[in-house]
Write a structure and sequence with these properties.
alpha/beta, binds thiamine diphosphate, binds magnesium ion
């Protein structure tokens, strides 16, 4: 008997659209031109929103937020197959996917500027609120999926989280629950190479994170997360499996966090620019654009027009946000106690009269 322990090593990465924009037609999902254009617009809008939010944060108009430059294909690809009856449980870096799901950009701006009105999912959008506590939203997402299975609903839940979250106990518990109970759940691990300053090599002794799903009995696949067509192909298959009662899947989307962890981060202290450079060539937008141009699905002129229109939509959202974002400093006091204690009432009065003296009365 061979007593050598088995070691799972690298597994292949599914790629449909390569860096030159060439498509492997044997693996391409069957998408109409209209669907391809919608995917492209959503990715451009995500990028425009990302860079505008960064500018607004740097100008003091926005709170800390987590940019997703370079992760647009991972974002949009994972929500593309979802219907309104399916659920989505995002992480904090998921605003591209949230816009696709029906969140308005002005609401997301309110959210990241710290206004509580920004947090609840919009009416009719089956999304869970995200949690900053890493990986903590994955078990509740499995709970929603188990509920669907119990009610015999043929829907699914997609939940995303990072490479760092893969090390959290709760995420591994979620995998096990989902596998054992055949929960209709699509796990999307956005492997962007970093958990703040911790590189993947310090997070895992394997190169692939998808191998972990296999250990739980979950069909798992490693996908080029910068390839929108591969993401759509993999997530569509996983969603269909889930809805058909075949249980969860794990998709490891290999991408890269090209920007900051959050606006409170300075990656120059822990990574060299040459680590980031190759990822410019792997840009998810660039390769998709090359493909769409070559196939005459969108001309270069049309791509430019889409970029302008997306920028315009972001600026309109910013204008609406500015209308709504009125500071209410009294709220610091209002939501702490159900019944405000007398000393807090005193402090509040004092604080508001100070603001009034400075001409800053709310
Ligand atoms: C339980 C917990 N521990 C630590 C943190 C601090 N923290 C915030 S983001 C982050 C890294 C997460 O990395 P990853 O899961 O790869 O997601 P990414 O930010 O790369 O999208 C950490 C450690 C936290 N928010 N929650
Ligand atoms: Mg990460």
């Amino acid at each position: 008997m061979d007593t050598k322990p088995v070691q799972l090593d690298n597994i292949d990465v599914l790629q449909v659209l390569n860096e030159e924009g060439m498509v492997d037609t044997t693996k391409a999902p069957p998408l109409t031109h209209d669907q391809l254009r919608r995917l492209y617009v959503a990715m451009v809008l995500t990028r425009k929103f990302d860079s505008r939010m960064l500018a607004m944060q740097r100008q003091g108009e926005m709170g800390t937020f987590a940019p997703n430059l370079g992760q647009e294909a991972t974002q949009i690809g994972q929500v593309f197959p979802l219907t309104a009856d399916d659920w989505f449980a995002p992480s904090y870096r998921s605003f591209g996917a949230q816009i696709w799901r029906g969140w308005s950009m002005e609401q997301l701006l309110l959210l990241w500027a710290g206004y509580h009105e920004g947090f609840p999912p919009p009416e009719g959008v089956n999304d869970l609120p995200f949690s900053i506590v890493i990986g903590s939203h994955v078990l509740p997402a499995v709970g929603v999926a188990m509920g669907m299975a119990q009610k015999k609903q043929q829907h699914c839940v997609t939940v995303n989280f990072g490479d760092g979250a893969m090390s959290q106990g709760a995420v591994n518990e979620a995998f096990n629950f989902a596998a054992v109970y055949k929960a209709p759940c699509v796990f999307v691990c956005e492997n962007n190479g970093w958990a703040i300053s911790t590189p993947l090599q310090r997070q895992a002794a394997t190169e692939s994170l998808a191998v972990r799903g296999i250990g739980f009995g979950i069909p798992s696949i490693r996908v080029d997360g910068n390839d929108i067509l591969a993401m759509v192909a993999a997530t569509t298959t996983a969603a269909e499996r889930a809805r058909a009662g075949q249980g969860p899947s794990l998709i490891e989307a290999v991408t890269y966090r090209m920007s900051l962890h959050t606006t409170a981060d300075d990656p120059t202290v822990y990574r060299q620019e040459e680590h980031v450079d190759p990822w410019h060539q792997r840009c998810p937008l660039l390769r998709f654009e090359r493909y769409l141009n070559r196939e005459s699905i969108l001309t270069e002129d049309e791509c430019r027009r889409i970029a302008d229109e997306c920028e315009q939509r972001v600026l309109e959202a910013r204008a609406k946000f500015r209308e709504m974002a009125k500071a209410r400093p009294e709220e610091i006091f209002d939501f702490v106690y159900h019944t405000m204690p007398p000393e807090l009432i005193e402090q509040k009065k004092d604080y508001l009269s100070r603001l009034a003296r400075k001409g800053l009365n709310p």
